Amino acid sequence: MDKEPITLDGLNKLKKELIFLKEKKRPEIVAAIAEARSHGDLKENAEYHAAKEEQSHNEGRITEINDVIARANVIDVTKLNNDGKVIFGSTVFLENLDSGEKINYKIVGKDEADLKQKLIYFQSPIGKGLIGRNKNDLVEIHTPAGIKNFEIKDVKYI
């Protein structure tokens, strides 16, 4: 079983989701199944089948989260020396040299990645292109959308 790196924030979010799924969602689904069952014939009971499917998805997600937590290798970057090097968990402030756009990304694990929140997977093209680089480096990254050129303006461990 391979350990999967995760930030402290990411682990805490997963634990909150797990509590919600087990303590709130699971009882709601069980109640919905009981309610649908009381309506009689289960073969043609759409509510029953929908509730059973939702139960299956919920239990699958619970299993998935438990697995991630079991394999979690929590990396707390606030306890590391900030020497300007891009590492897992660091936040990288970039300038796109082609467009002049300034953007920042936090380098995270697979289960935390969310581009809308500027959380990028460390194994993604941009993540791989940034890890190990330093503040003020010029970086050329090959992405599915083409080559992007960045300057690393700052690296923070927050």
Structure, explained:
The protein is an alpha/beta fold and 158 residues long. The chain folds into two domains: 4-74, Transcription elongation factor, GreA/GreB, N-terminal domain (Helix Hairpins, Orthogonal Bundle); 77-156, Roll (Chitinase A, domain 3), CATH 3.10.50. It has helices spanning 8-37, 46-71, 125-130; strands at residues 4-7, 72-75, 91-96, 102-108, 119-121, 138-143, 146-156. The chain has a five-stranded mixed sheet. A two-stranded parallel sheet has the order 1-2. The longest helix has 30 residues, at 8-37. The two termini are 29 Å apart. The mean pLDDT is 92.
Secondary structure: elements and pairs:
Blueprint lengths: L3 E4 H30 L8 H26 E4 L15 E6 L5 E7 L10 E3 L3 H6 L7 E6 L2 E11 L2
Parallel strand pairs: 1-2, 4-5
Antiparallel strand pairs: 3-4, 3-7, 6-7
Helix pairs in contact: 1-2
- Percent helix among the residues? 25-40%
Q: Domains counted in the coordinates: how many?
A: 2
Strand content: 25-35%
> The biggest beta sheet, please?
5 strands, mixed
Radius of gyration from the alpha-carbon trace, in angstroms: 21 Å
Instruction: Based on the coordinates given, report the CATH architecture of the largest domain.
Output: Roll
Distance from N terminus to C terminus (CA atoms, Å) equals 29 Å
Highest-level CATH class of the largest domain: Alpha Beta
Structural class: alpha/beta
* Shape estimate: elongated
Strand order of the largest sheet: 5-4-3-7-6
Instruction: Find the CATH superfamily of the largest domain.
Output: Transcription elongation factor, GreA/GreB, C-terminal domain
Number of strands: 7
Within the CATH hierarchy, at the fold level, what is the topology of the largest domain? Chitinase A, domain 3
The stretches of 5 or more residues where confidence is low (pLDDT under 50) are none
Average pLDDT across residues? 92
Order of helices and strands: EHHEEEEHEE
Number of helices: 3
